[in-house]
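User: Run a structure prediction on this.
Assistant: Running it now.
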Amino acid sequence: MTKGYAEQLFLQEKPTLALLAIWSLQKTYASVITKEINSTFAHTTKILSKMEDHGLIQFSVEGRVKYVELTDHGYRVVDALKNLIMAIEGETPESIEESKKEDSATQDIEVSEEDKRLTMEHIDRLHGQIVSIYNDHFNENSEPQVIKMKIGPFSRDIQLLLNSIEENENLIDDEGLDKLNEIQNIFDLVMKQ
């Protein structure tokens, strides 16, 4: 994929939303994506065609339905988009993960107050975002697929937190654990709808 193409495609709202919608819905079809991103069918199929040309998605036909789903490369691009969104918001999961790896590499059982503070800030921020998105869409009676598309991209962040806490449970206090449980419950409820 050329640099110019990537910029043209993913620095625009509709292609980014389309890719995130495919990721969220797992296996879907063009008309559903069209509705999810509030676009025309023609524009959506043009976006999907470009994504297929660059190996981000693949189509499969089952009966009379043509499904679309992400390729492995597409999943990597979605992860990169989520990291970009987090970086814009001032947080990178890599920096959190690196600090956890350093702690485990030294086999130091003690956790610094700074590590605890960073973990709790991450949980607070994630909790605020997920609860806010869920409440806003729930109050607006949004379609379950819309809520999935908005909350689904947080799965990697949740897993990173869980992995970090599993490695060292001293990173989190009871309040943080309650918030993390609430995040998990909302995520599971939304993704199982």
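Residues 18 and 165 are 33 Å apart (CA to CA).
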